[in-house]
Write a structure and sequence with these properties.
By secondary structure, this protein is mainly α. It has a single domain, classed as A middle domain of Talin 1 (Up-down Bundle). It contains twelve helices and two strands, in the order αααααβαααααβαα. A two-stranded antiparallel sheet has the order 1-2. Helix 3 packs across helix 7, helix 4 packs parallel to helix 9 and helix 4 packs parallel to helix 11.
C-alpha cells in the first residue's frame, strides 16, 4: 500500500507544481512582466517546488537525511540525467546567451557555500538565512542583467483572458496538491525504507529526488523541442540555485539539518563533479552527444556506487 501511496503522492506533487507554474506565468503576463523574467524565475523556481515541499516536510518531521539527500539528488539528476538527455536528443544547440560568462558563478557559488556550511555537520538556521540571501541576490541579478526575451517559453494558452477567480482557484489546488503530496511522499517513503531496510538517505537521494526532478525534465525537453536551448539549460541552472538556496534555506529554518560527511562523502563528491562538468561543458560549448556522454557517465557512476 505504501508503494501506491508513494506513486500517487509523487503525481500530486508534480501536477500541483504544474498548476502553480502555469498560473504564476499567467499573473506575470497580466502585469506585463518580461518573458525572460517569467522563464528564468517562475518556470525555473516553479519546477523546484516539489523539491521544496518534500524537503520542508522532511525537515518538519526532523528527517534531515531525507531533506538534504533530496536536494543533492535533485541537483545530480538535473545536471546528469536531464541535461544529459537534452544534449543527447538535441540535433543542434546554439544558445544565444553566453551561459559561461553570465551564469557560471551561479553554478559554482552555491556549491562552494554548501561545502563550507556542512563542515561542522549541520546546516543551521543562520546558514538558512544566508542561503535565502543568495536567492534574493540571484533574483536581483536576473532582473538587472538580463534583457533577452524568452517568448518561446510561454504556453500560448496562458495568454487567454485573465480571470482572477480561476487563477486563485487553480493556485489553491496546486498548493494543496504540492503540500499534501509532499506529506504523503515523506511518510510512505519512510515506511518503504524501513520495510526494505535501506536508509532514508537513499530514499531521498533516489526515489524522491528523481521524482521531483521530473518537472525540470519535462520543461527542458519541451524547450528543446521548441528550439529554445537557452531555456533548457537556464532552467537547470535556475533550478539548482533554487534547490540550494530556497529549498535548503527554507528547510533549515524549520529544523537544523544534520549532514554526515563521512557516510555521504561520495554523493557530495558526485554533486560537485557534476557541477564542475557542467561548467566545463558551458566553457567549451559541448552542447552535443560528447557532452551528454560525460554527464551520463557521471550518472552511471553515481547509480552504480549507490546500489553497490
Amino acid at each position: 500500500m505504501d508503494y501506491i501511496i508513494f506513486l500517487v503522492a509523487m503525481a500530486a506533487l508534480i501536477y500541483g507544481a504544474d498548476f502553480i507554474i502555469k498560473e504564476s506565468e499567467r499573473i506575470a503576463l497580466h502585469f506585463n512582466i518580461s518573458h525572460f523574467v517569467i522563464g528564468a524565475t517562475l518556470v525555473a523556481f516553479g519546477t523546484s517546488l516539489p523539491e521544496m515541499a518534500a524537503s520542508m516536510m522532511a525537515a518538519s518531521h526532523a528527517k534531515s537525511d531525507m531533506a538534504v539527500a533530496n536536494v543533492l539528488g535533485s541537483v545530480i539528476f538535473n545536471i546528469t540525467l536531464v541535461l544529459g538527455l537534452v544534449f543527447f536528443i538535441a540535433k543542434s544547440m546554439k544558445p544565444e546567451r553566453d551561459l559561461f560568462s553570465k551564469d557560471s558563478a551561479w553554478i559554482l557559488a552555491p556549491v562552494v557555500i554548501f561545502l563550507i556550511m556542512i563542515q561542522d555537520g549541520v546546516i543551521g538556521r543562520v546558514d538558512g538565512i544566508i542561503f535565502l540571501f543568495i536567492m534574493i541576490s540571484y533574483l536581483i541579478f536576473l532582473f538587472t542583467s538580463s534583457k533577452e526575451d524568452l517568448e518561446g517559453e510561454i504556453d500560448e494558452s496562458l495568454t487567454e483572458k485573465f480571470n482572477w477567480l480561476k487563477t486563485v482557484a487553480m493556485l489553491s489546488i496546486g498548493f494543496a496538491f504540492t503540500i499534501g503530496g509532499a506529506n504523503f511522499v515523506i511518510d510512505s517513503g519512510t515506511n518503504i525504507a524501513r520495510s526494505l531496510e535501506i536508509s532514508e538517505w537513499i530514499i531521498g537521494l533516489f526515489l524522491i529526488s528523481l521524482g521531483t526532478s521530473l518537472p525540470e525534465l519535462v520543461v527542458s525537453l519541451v524547450a528543446i523541442k521548441k528550439g529554445n536551448a537557452d531555456m533548457s539549460i537556464g532552467n537547470i541552472i535556475g533550478s539548482n540555485v533554487a534547490n540550494f538556496s530556497m529549498v535548503l534555506g527554507a528547510s533549515s529554518l524549520i529544523h537544523p539539518l544534520s549532514v554526515d560527511l563521512q557516510a555521504n562523502s561520495f554523493d557530495i563528491l558526485i554533486m560537485v563533479s557534476a557541477s564542475l562538468m557542467l561548467l566545463f561543458i558551458l566553457a567549451n560549448k559541448l552542447y552535443n552527444k560528447a557532452g551528454a556522454i560525460f554527464l551520463l557517465s557521471i550518472l552511471a557512476l553515481f547509480i552504480q556506487n549507490s546500489f553497490a
